[in-house]
Amino acid sequence: MPFRGNLVSASIAALASLVVAVVTIAMLWKFDQSLHVSAARHVVARVVEIPLAIATLAVPFYGLRAFATSQRAGRLAARGEYQSARVAVEDSRDHIWVVVGIGMTALVGAFAAFLLSANDGAVRSVLFDWSLIWRSRTGLVKGFWLNIKLFVVSEILVLVWALLVAIVRLLPGRACAPVRFLAIAYTDIFRGVPAVITIYLIVLGFALAGVPVFDSMSKDGQVFWLSVLALVLVYGAYVAEVYRAGIESIHWSQTAAARSLGLSQWQTMRHVVIPQAVRRIIPPLLNDFVALQKDTALVSFVGVVEILNYAGLYKNRFFNLSPVTGAAIAYLIITIPVTRFVDYLIRIDKERIQAQ
Amino acid sequence: MSAFLELRDVHKRFGDNEVLRGVDLGVDEHQVVCLIGPSGCGKSTLLRCINALEPIDRGEIDIDGERVSGRGVDVNALRADVGIVFQSFNLFPHMSVLENVALAPRKVLKLSPREATQRAFELLTRIGLDEKAHEYPDRLSGGQQQRVAIVRALAMQPRVMLLDEVTSALDPELVSEVLTLITQLATEGMTMLLATHEMGFARDVSSKVVFLYQGRIEEQGPPEQMFNDPHSERTRGFLRSIIEAKRL
Question: Which residues of B touch A272 (CB under 8 A)?
Answer without folding.
Answer: 92
